[in-house]
Inverse folding.
């Protein structure tokens, strides 16, 4: 059985653990090991998640499979993007699953939840950035109806950036 619920500040530690593990699977080979290690250590601390969860603009959702956390998403409502002229759009900043839950359609379920949540909050579309070498994610988003609308260089370290596509889905 799968369930989805909004994360609270009490979930900060678990979010940090899931973020590290899922980021390393998806992006661990995208930059030199030292850069990745520093990025993970800096960005996926429990304190970072506590601070983000204290800000009501950051909406985190946890998906469970048989009462075990399988992944999470992060949404920002009314988050514009220079590549999209439509206003009242959501940024899906993250959608990550732990590798052991791949192939169970949980990503699609969490994605659909995010879409419905955005629509219920009067959003007109959803956008995201995805690393151009993350073919698994790109195929998923294209299958779900997203269109490439721009590009963005995601800074991993002072000396390394990963090129990303900006994808948009209009409702």
């Amino acid at each position: 059985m799968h369930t989805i619920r909004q994360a609270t500040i009490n979930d900060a530690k678990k979010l940090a653990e899931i973020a590290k593990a899922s980021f390393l699977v998806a992006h661990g080979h995208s930059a030199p090991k030292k850069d990745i290690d520093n990025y993970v250590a800096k960005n996926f601390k429990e304190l970072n998640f506590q601070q983000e969860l204290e800000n009501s603009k950051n909406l985190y959702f946890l998906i469970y499979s048989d009462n075990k956390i399988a992944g999470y998403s992060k949404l920002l409502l009314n988050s514009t993007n220079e590549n999209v002229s439509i206003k009242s759009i959501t940024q899906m900043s993250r959608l990550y699953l732990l590798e052991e839950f791949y192939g169970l359609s949980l990503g699609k379920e969490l994605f659909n939840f995010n879409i419905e949540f955005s629509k219920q909050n009067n959003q007109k579309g959803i956008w995201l950035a995805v690393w151009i070498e993350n073919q698994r994610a790109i195929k998923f988003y294209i299958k779900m109806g997203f269109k490439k609308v721009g590009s963005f260089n995601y800074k991993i370290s002072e000396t390394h950036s990963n090129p990303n596509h900006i994808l948009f889905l209009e409702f």
Notes: The beta strands are 2-6, 59-65, 68-76, 90-97, 125-131, 147-155, 161-170.
